[in-house]
Amino acid sequence: MTVQETDAELLNDREMRTLLARRPVVLLPMGAVESHGDHLPAGTDNILARRLAERLVERVAGRTPLLLLPLLPFGQVWSLADAPGSFTLSNETVSRTLVEIGRAARTKGLSTIVAINAHYGNAVAIRDAQRVLKEEGVTLAAFNYPGAGTPTEAVRERPAAHPAFMHACEIETSYMLHLAPEHVRMDEAIENYPAFPDDFGEVPYRWSEFSDSPVLGDARAATAEKGRTILDAVLDRMAELVARLHERQPQA
């Protein structure tokens, strides 16, 4: 199946009924509107989530039935809420939205949703929604670049700024160069390795408290080839996971 044949916004009623009868896995791209420095747009996470979802549809090529929902474009952006390009929702709003989408899917006989999440700030909200929906018979899976770890370490040339964070850096900029090069301004890419507070793991900080830029790492080292290598592995893993999720659905 093509993207057009799975895109909920483009299907008419007859086409939707036919697809629903196959009990597809629902794909929900999730991103955020968040500052990413001068070399990437504020919609970077949205662009990556949507294009990665479309590539997954193409990678699966109809072997697993999929229903692609519209992008959820706003997320929780607490850490960079005071940056010029950031517009945040609360965790509660994001989580509640996911729960209600899950309940709507359930009324259509669908029991499996995959959040293709390109914004790590959404993780807590997704987890909370997963727990609520599980109690109601709906599986919400969270795909936060599964399978990226090994290929990332293989292609990385510059160190990560922090072991728990990746933002507008060599890796994320490489993703954009591969999936959306028209939105990248490599002439504006910078290196930024801020000094994190020594209690950063225990105390909440706005990133503006210790860094003048939302870039964490060296965006200058990004290449489209690095992005392709990592995301090919991610897409392979995603395709495996959606097939398994579809197989594990309860019988209608």
UniProtKB/TrEMBL annotation:
Listed cofactors: Zn(2+)
Sample GO molecular function, one term: metal ion binding
Keywords of the record: Hydrolase, Metal-binding, Zinc
One GO biological process term: riboflavin biosynthetic process
Cell cycle as UniProt keyword: no
A matching Pfam family: Creatininase
Annotated InterPro entries: Creatininase-like_sf, Creatininase/forma_Hydrolase
Keyword Metal-binding part of the UniProt annotation: yes
Entries under Gene3D superfamilies matching the protein: Creatininase
The family this protein is said to belong to: Belongs to the creatininase superfamily.
Protein name as annotated: Creatinine amidohydrolase
Organism: Faunimonas pinastri
